[in-house]
Amino acid sequence: MNKALLDTDIYSEILKAVNPTVTQNATTYRRSQGILTFSTVTVMEVIRGFQKSQASRRLQAFHAAIALEEILHFDQPAAELAGCIAGELERIGQPIGTSDPNDCRHRPASRP
């Protein structure tokens, strides 16, 4: 199984553990890779959601959980490439979510 960068929507579904297909796929992936991989953008978005809903217990659990995962940092080169990707997609009439271009910059190390 190839290494994958999870976006916020998928990671949120994993945290909720409501969809059995997502849960099973996450379990299979974790067995294969040992960890989940997502970006600091996902960390920000998940914390924002917990803060907004005042879910302090879930926020504490999230902080404990991410200590065991691989988090890719969103630095200046990532920001520049994300801006180029988002701008180009908007120019051709195919915009994507606000944070999705940020994740496009990251490429897990095991991928070419």
UniProtKB/TrEMBL annotation:
The record, for SUPFAM superfamilies, names: PIN domain-like
Record bears the keyword Flavoprotein: no
* Region called Disordered, residue ranges: 93-112
List the protein's name: tRNA(fMet)-specific endonuclease VapC
The protein's GO terms of the molecular function aspect are: endonuclease activity; hydrolase activity
- Keyword Hydrolase found: yes
Which domain of life does the protein's organism represent?
Bacteria
- The Enzyme Commission number assigned here is 3.1.-.-
Keywords from the UniProt entry: Endonuclease, Hydrolase, Nuclease, Plasmid
Q: What is the lineage of its organism?
A: Bacteria, Pseudomonadati, Planctomycetota, Planctomycetia, Isosphaerales
